[in-house]
Design brief:
This protein is mainly α and 187 residues long.
């Protein structure tokens, strides 16, 4: 009988061990399932975060527009290469079209006055371009992604471009209307 008791005891111990092994296996399987679900969720979260980053604008275009606006404003104040070339061309045309027997007033107007006005027109065009570009950059967030604020440096540079554009446009109008540095009187 002793053997039967030992057999029964072994059998009970084996059954308990088997139940413990099954419980441990179920817990391990449950943990693996949870870990795989968490890793899938984290991968989905990373993918959705990447998709959100790809969809949100970085502001590079707005920054470039602001810098272009400020540069155009500076060109409008300095005259720029195109304005200088256009003024030189207008001077040459004035010299060719004016005869040597023309009055001094007509020679001054044709040779120097038209060149001065040409410079003013080109400066005004650059100033207008600076003004429009700066305004577009400043107005862009109103039509962009909601909740995405515009960087402070972009606003500052765009406002600088708008300011330089307004000043350049004002100076161009004053130069063209001969209110600023008018031609000398010849009479």
């Amino acid at each position: 009988m002793a053997t039967k008791t030992e057999d029964v005891t072994k059998t009970d111990d084996e059954q308990t061990a088997a139940v413990d092994t099954e419980a441990d296996g179920a817990e391990a399987a449950e943990q693996l399932t949870e870990e795989s679900e968490e890793s899938e969720e984290s991968q989905e979260g990373e993918e959705s975060a990447e998709a959100v980053q790809e969809k949100t604008p970085s502001g590079v275009g707005q920054g470039a527009g602001a810098v272009v606006s400020a540069a155009l404003g500076l060109v409008s104040l300095s005259g720029g290469w195109i304005g200088t070339v256009a003024a030189a061309r207008e001077t040459l045309v004035g010299q060719l079209q004016t005869s040597s027997t023309a009055s001094v007033a007509k020679q001054v107007k044709e040779v120097y006055g038209d060149a001065w006005h040409t410079t003013a027109v080109w400066a005004g065009l650059f100033a207008l371009a600076a003004l429009i570009t700066g305004v577009v950059v400043l107005a862009r967030p109103a039509f962009g992604a909601p909740g995405r604020p515009q960087a402070a440096w972009i606003k500052s540079v765009a406002w600088a471009g708008v300011s330089l554009g307004v000043i350049g446009l004002l100076l161009a109008i004053l130069k063209y209307s001969d209110a600023l540095l008018a031609l000398p009187s010849t009479g």
